[in-house]
Structure prediction request, 370 residues.
Amino acid sequence: MAPDLDPSTVVVHSGRPERVPNAPVGESPVFSSTYVAGGDRGYGRFGNDAWSALEQTLGELEGGRGLTFASGMATVAAIVDLVPVGGRVVAPQHAYSGVLALLDQQMEQGRLTVDRVNVADTDAVVQAVEAADMLWIESPTNPALEVADIPTVAAAGRATDAIVVVDNTFATPLLQQPLSLGADIVMHSATKFIAGHSDVILGAAVTANDDLWNAIELRRRSLGAIPGPMEAWLALRGLRTLALRLERAQANAAFLAERLLEHPRVSRVRYPGLPSDSGHERAAKQMSGFGAILSIELGGDAEAAQRVCEGTELWVHATSLGGVESMLERRRRWPIEPPTIPQDLIRLAVGIEHPDDLWADLERALANAF
Ligand code: PLP
Prediction:
């Protein structure tokens, strides 16, 4: 597509069939496990039109070539597999707990070693990345909302030949493009904002480096963690409205963050969009918006936090984020969540409902919890 189009136009128009008479307007999933011999497709584990359309759109948004996977975690596993046996990974202290658990499992098996760092502490990341094979960054982090200085840490990683990976799930390709900030690979749990309707599990990687793309694609075909055609198509359909959904959800998040800051039961609001947030300045430099996720703490009262989560009517008490419906949960209810995440921390994944309704429901649940 024309290089000067706004990303909000790219999400609508990229990855569509050629405009010839009788062509469908949008790509369709192809339900075939194999293809007639003689072409370049070969077999259903190697390619599908719905994957290609989604990959083209994500590639265009992130500035590279895309690869979709069966889940965000399948994407993570394929990328981590690039680390040589005995290699070293620098990873965040706080990040999606499934990623941290996977790295821990690989360390326990003796496959690699992992150094955990606070991604917001740039000096610590730069120091740790010396002699690392991979630098794994999440920014903003799940659920602590820490913000890494991506250009600085990516430059440090590249200088030491580490593969720099950024999990861009929270920001989405519309708010942050890590490849343009110096990362080698960007990954997404497309389950979240990209698909956007809490009805599909899917992952994606994008890189502008052909060798890395080939290495990741080889892992997808050999490990077999491929997306179903229907799932890829659902994610593409969801992606078409990402700009609109995100605009509303982000405005809702900013509104709620301000309100929560004033609430007497809320001891801390973590949201990079708040000028008082420690990640605000950095996020303002490298992101074009602050996203639709925030976390709050309730003065150390984990039981009250649990009651808030169980006490809403509109907000869905469920894990996950990035759907049109607002969700909340106390992250430490999961045993694998890092112990440095406060017990009373509630992650608020803000959806696209009317902000007044969201606030009224949350305020009521907070009042009833104490
Ligand atoms: N990365 C982040 C930041 C996530 O929040 C998640 C899931 O919550 C994942 C990766 C894993 O993605 P999936 O659940 O699609 O496997």
